[in-house]
Protein: Kinesin-like protein
Organism: Nasonia vitripennis
Amino acid sequence: MMRKNCPGVFDMSESVKVAVRCRPMSQKELQNKCRSVVSVDPSSRTCSLAEGASQGKSYQFDATFGPEASTEAVYEEVGSYVVEAVLEGYNGTVFAYGQTGCGKSHTMRGFIEKALEHLFEATSTAAEDTRYLALLTYLEIYNEKLKDLLQSGGNENQLQLKEDPVRGTYVAGGLRELTVKDARECARLVEQGDRRRAAAATKMNAASSRSHAVLTICLEAIAIEGESGAVRRGRLHLVDLAGSERQGRTGAAGDRLKEAASINLSLSALGNVISALAAGNGRHVPYRDSKLTRLLRDSLGGNARTLMIACVSPSDVDAEESLSTLRYAARARCIKNKPIVNEDPKDALLRQYQIELQRLRKLLESSESRDQILTLPEPKIAFVEEVQPASQQQQQQQFNGDNANVLVLDSSPSKGSEADPEREERRLRKREAAKQEVLRRLERLTIGGEALGDAEIRRRRERRRKRLQALAEALERSSQEGNGGAFEVYGQLKSTEDALKRMAKRAKQLEAEAADLQASWDEERRELLRRELLAQQICEAMIPHLRPGCPLRDVAAVRAAASWCTELGRWRLPDLSSNSSRIPLPPASLQSPPPPEIKADLNNNHDHPSAGNDSSLEEEEEEAEEESLSEEPINEPEPLNRRVNIADVYFKRNRIDKILAHVREAKTFDASSGRLSKSGSSSEELNPSQQVQPPQQQVHPVQLGSLGSLNLTSGWLAEDLPPPTADVETGTPPPIFGGLKRNNLIQPIHHPRILEALPSYPRITASTLPQRLQGPIS
Ligand SMILES: Nc1ncnc2c1ncn2[C@@H]1O[C@H](COP(=O)(O)OP(=O)(O)OP(=O)(O)O)[C@@H](O)[C@H]1O
């Protein structure tokens, strides 16, 4: 059975581990007299910036390394546990993150070297019964395109990322996967790949990586002696990310600028994934926003043990970028992964051998197995030597052997074999030989146990295991004691911050809606004010036309006394029916029998529908008036009295219209003869004896004017005339309508426009005035 190299080492917290590494000042920075503003305290695992927005704020990580720390020390302290996990069958990822020129490639180069050493040291000292198959791929993401760094040219357009529920994310389309047997071979391949990788000089880094590079080592292990013969597969991603950069600082242009845009885009996608994962709460994680995040899907929030190395520059000119890196790094610590040992993966290459081994075991145990044939599959993988064509043929020959695909375990008949001990022994020897052949083939393909005889390597391996065990325990303790709580608090803070951001956004929307509403309300209010102003202006214009003493003249008082009637939905005006509001009646001689007392409801105060109905009253009066006009002889003395009563209602506009309609009917008015032709058909002569004598009482021009609505019409409107003034001497109220003066009965008057519009309306002068209306006014 496969040995568990370091039990307990990986039973640690599943959070992504984050280490910060601060590089030394570069020659250029020293020449430019840059100041170091990053301080790192490895003992407390903290890092802080002496300048910038978070001055004095200290960030805590799983490990921190200052400029003096060697890459080897960094690897041993934080990197080796990931590689150890891969040996156990876990997925592991190490990636370096940070701005351009902060030492990512420098760190990852050292890590790759150390990780390969570590892996092959472990496999070479593994127990004899454990075989490993190591496969290597080297992939580049350049301008969002995948490129195989183990092949020169060609297939980058065919490479595609695919997702599979079992396999996770994988590259389809012919990514070269090479079997590797030792660290040196791997280092050579990595070197070749690095040469194919896009790099260029920028202002900030003479050899700036212009792409993300992902070196993947897949390690399958099989325990050939165990009962189960299970296959485990660990996968290690070593990722050197391109650095984030600001165009202004790198001076990127042309291709460099395009690369920088693509780099920044994928790094911001990575940042978003980290933020979403750190916030938790089932938030959508935008893995699909870039190829990089799709590829690292398992490593961030999935089935992997992950280490992030946040690289920072110590220089004050990079303080802003360093702060951003520290913030992302602190967030990444909150990401929870779910690593599991990958047991018996369906697509394991060693699985075919596993199946054959199991079958072999059964055959050997079965008494009827003598004639069985053991078939070994043709390997579908490329050996590292294929990269060098010279040795390819030799390798194939080595692997295939002579008819190596078919092994005959035993072709002899089984009958009576039990009785023949010699035959039985021969048979057993053959079985053993077959098993050895299977193992030989496996050995040719796989690795394991090569350095078992090397005491030095074994001691080294043992030391590492012990140290890793101690480290795992320490990490476990720290994550349980402080960091667990810190992660929790940070997670809560993050989700609170997110909630606040969402609320702030909503508040902004509501503010905009409120501003809209306010604007429309303001507009409505302005419109209402304008209408109110119009009503006020109309009132003011009407006031001079009201007779003196009319309470409506005091608009302010009416307003103050008015009350709102909710049932009617109207204003209830004060009672205006007092005597003072009535127009003085003409002298008794002119009065007709008093009409039935109908109190005009000018103020909505009547509850009785008929009593308070202005329109019905109006209609009645109109009907009566009509009758008087149409039925009563025009020369009867009575009509004047009736007409005097018209003054009571002379404000009623529709009444005026009615009267005008009658006037319109009068085709002609013969002023000289005093004959009024009605409708052109009949005419009646006004009999002087029947002419109405002018009233003895002084008739106010208002009344006269209103009488004139039939016989002496003056204007209803005073707009064409100068404003009326009161007679100071006599105290006579000012005439409401112009055109009539005290000493001059009839002056040329302005006819109301409405009357002028009537074609047949006669122009009235004093001479044309009927005798009955001519009389002393004053
Ligand atoms: N820890 C370190 N010790 C000494 N030198 C370092 C260290 N880290 C980085 N350097 C040097 O700093 C320079 C920039 O480093 P590197 O190329 O690794 O940066 P980078 O982050 O990969 O940049 P880019 O993102 O542009 O590829 C290199 O010359 C490298 O040798």
Observations:
- The mean pLDDT is 71.
- The CA atoms of residues 17 and 51 lie 26 Å apart.
- Residues 23-24, 26, 98, 100-106, 205, 207-209, 242-243, 311 surround adenosine-5'-triphosphate (CB under 6 Å).
- The longest strand covers residues 130-142.
